[in-house]
Each structure stands twice: as C-alpha cells, then as structure tokens.
Design goal:
There is one protein chain. This protein is α+β, with helices and mostly antiparallel strands. The protein has two domains: 70 residues; 199 residues, Aromatic compound dioxygenase (Protocatechuate 3,4-Dioxygenase, subunit A, Sandwich). Strands 6, 7, 10, 13 and 14 form a five-stranded mixed β-sheet that branches. It has a four-stranded antiparallel β-sheet with strand order 9-8-11-12, with no helix packed on it. Strands 1-2-3 form a three-stranded antiparallel β-sheet. A hairpin with a 3-residue loop joins β13 and β14. The chain is globular and about 50 Å long.
Length: 299
C-alpha cells in the first residue's frame, strides 16, 4: 500500500502564489513536502515563510507557518487562546474505501449512497444488511479545525470513516463480510467542529499498524462520492493501548502476532511521521475507550 499518493508536478507549485504553495505542501505526504520546501527555499521562499506565513482570518491567533524538523515539514497555527494546530498529511485511501472510487466483485462499491450511512453508531450494518461488529467499544471524537484561520473550528462539515473488524476484515470487501457494511459511517461536525462515532477497537492485520481511514467533505450533502472529498488521511493508535487490548480482550487473538511483527518505523504509511495522526485515548477494556483527535486543514 503506497504512502502519500499525491505527487507534485514539475515544477512543484501552481500559480496561486505562496498561499497556494503552502496549501499544496500540506495536502501531500512528507517526502513531497520536503522536496517542495527545498524548491521553495531555493527561490527565497524560506524567508517569506518566516516573515509572512499564511494570513489567519477570523481571529487574532498567529498566522499559519511552515516548519521543517528532521527532514519533515508541517504547517501549523496558533489560536488566540494559545491552541496550536497543524495540518494532517494526506494518506492513501487504501484498497477498501467504499466511497465509489473502486470496485469489488465486479461492481462499484459506494457505501456513501446507502440509506442510513449518516449515523453515529457504526457497529451495525444498515439497509438490507443486519450484522453487528463485535469488539471492545470505542467512542471516537474527531474535531476539524482550519489551520489557515488560527485553528477556527469547521462546523457543518462531514467526516466519512471506515476501519477493519477485530479480525482485520473490511466490510463490503473481505471474504465473509462482503454483504455487511458495518464500521463505516458519516457524521456532520457540530458547533465545536466535532463529529462523534461509536465503534469498536480495530484489530491489527498483517503488514499495517492499527489505523482508521477517513475522508473529509464540505457537508453531509456532498459526502456521496469520493469525487467530492477534500482530504483523505488515517489515524494511528498508541502502541501501549493496542498491546493492552490485543493481549487481554476477547476476539483479538490474531492481532497479537500481527502486531508483534510491525512498528511505526516499518509501517508504509506512518513511517515518515505520525504525530498529527495519533489518537489520544483514555479508558479500559471493560468500560470501553474514548479516542480524540484534532484534524487540521487548510480550508
């Protein structure tokens, strides 16, 4: 599964000036951002970044700026209250998006068109399917903010997310669950910019660190096809929480050996950096977990 799939053309920038350049750097993966920063610095863009950044609108917080550390670049901003937010990198959607962009068994798969797909609890299938995904309960709270506007909340936007079962299978695609559509759902962000999902802790399948895929849309009404998505990325899980769940929770036995053979350093998506993609998790196996993340965009 390739990482960071939006390459720059040559030359790597468009005609929208510095703001357009920074927007594109934030929307591609770290290797391309590093190459873009090198190209920009050669033209004197580094001084522009430090002097002006991107204008923050709708607030008195600091302007968005691009920073490079250990060969990796990020675009960050600071709100008037002191909150620091950063742009999350674009990642591959993987082979099981269910957003109308690919096919399975000869047919286009688009869960976004299913009646009932806009829901908070994604553990049970909708429509003609009725299966329920078993696993440790997980409440996921995803907050969207505009890094280009001093971390202002993005309310009324939509998040579509999907992830594997505790056995490492994806509904609609994997053998045994092709007729199910659970662990997929769309939610609109509220006045705080937050969309909340009730789901399960995903398993770890061979070759990948545990993760959740997601796409961002401008509204629920536009969340009907991948053609309308504004961002695709992935969320990562803390290693110690994964170890606790896989070693102690029922139904996750296959994840134990898979997890032992993978790390962030060898994962083909997270190996170039995952700080802005890491979930903050509280809770335990018996009562369930609560995971939160702030997703920064250049909106």
């Amino acid at each position: 599964m390739p990482q960071h799939t939006t390459p720059f053309a040559s030359p790597p920038f468009d005609s929208q000036g510095l703001q357009g350049d920074l927007r594109r750097m934030a929307e591609v993966g770290a290797p391309e951002r590093r190459r873009a920063l090198t190209w920009l610095a050669a033209l004197g863009g580094g001084s522009l970044l430090g002097a002006t950044g991107l204008s923050g609108c709708g607030g008195s917080g600091g302007a968005a700026t691009s920073n490079s550390t250990n060969g990796s670049s990020t675009v960050t901003a600071t709100s008037s209250s002191g909150e620091v937010c950063s742009v999350i990198p674009t990642e591959t959607q993987g082979p099981y998006p269910g957003d109308g962009s690919n096919s399975a068994n000869g047919s286009v798969v688009n869960a976004l068109m299913l009646s009932g797909i806009v829901r908070s609890d994604i553990r049970t299938s909708v429509g003609s399917a009725s299966g329920t995904a078993a696993g440790v309960p997980l409440t996921l709270r995803v907050r969207l903010v505009n890094v280009n506007a001093a971390c202002a909340t993005l309310d009324g936007w939509a998040i579509y997310l999907w992830h594997c079962t505790r056995d490492g299978k994806y509904s609609l695609y994997s053998s045994g669950v092709t007729n199910e559509n659970y662990l997929r759902g769309v939610q609109a962000t509220d006045s705080s910019g937050t969309a909340t999902f009730t789901t399960i802790f995903p398993g770890c399948y061979s070759g990948r660190m545990p993760h959740i895929h997601f796409e961002v849309y401008r509204s629920v009404n536009t969340a009907t096809s991948a053609d309308n998505k504004l961002l695709t990325s992935q969320m990562a899980f803390p290693t110690e929480v994964c170890e606790t769940v896989y070693d102690n929770a029922s139904g996750y036995s296959a994840s134990v050996s898979n997890f032992a053979q993978i790390s962030f350093a060898t994962d083909n998506v997270f190996s170039d950096g995952h700080d802005s993609q890491m979930l903050s998790i509280t809770g335990d196996i018996s009562s369930g977990y609560v995971a939160t993340i702030t997703v920064g965009m250049l909106a």
